[in-house]
């Protein structure tokens, strides 16, 4: 029996990026994700790639640059982190210093957190809510 329904499988969120250095400043310098792996176009994949996350998390964010389509994020392209508590304003300032822009994501997310647009235009929501699958 597959463990796909147990929540154990690792999740990869892959996105194109115009500028991996700017993206790294935002996600690593601002949000404090770790660089889990890095590759260049000279490597096996044939493009520049950055994998970011926390080593003990069951997910990672993969950013790809080079011969890939330009990012075309919409207002619904959200990466939501459920903090189960208040959003640290110092963290929001760090994300802004690292190239992010605080934006509105609509009444629901504005009520339940803070949204910051990354250098590629994708939105990161820092939610004050706890994760619930109900």
UniProtKB/TrEMBL annotation:
Residues 77-126 form the YycE-like C-terminal domain. It holds the Pfam family YycE-like_N. Residues 11-63 form the YycE-like N-terminal domain. SUPFAM superfamilies: Glyoxalase/Bleomycin resistance protein/Dihydroxybiphenyl dioxygenase. This is VOC family protein. It comes from Micromonospora globbae.
């Amino acid at each position: 029996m597959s463990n796909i329904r147990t929540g154990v499988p690792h999740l990869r969120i892959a996105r194109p990026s115009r500028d991996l250095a700017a993206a790294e400043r935002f996600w690593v310098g601002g949000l404090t994700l770790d660089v889990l792996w890095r590759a260049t176009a000279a490597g096996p994949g044939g493009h520049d790639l950055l994998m970011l996350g926390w080593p003990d998390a069951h997910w990672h964010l993969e950013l790809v640059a080079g011969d890939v389509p330009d990012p075309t994020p919409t207002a619904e392209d959200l990466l939501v982190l459920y903090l189960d508590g208040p959003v640290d304003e110092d963290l929001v300032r760090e994300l802004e210093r690292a190239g992010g822009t605080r934006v509105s994501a609509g009444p629901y997310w504005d009520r339940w957190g803070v949204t910051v647009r990354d250098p590629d235009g994708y939105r990161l929501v820092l939610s004050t809510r706890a994760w619930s699958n109900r």
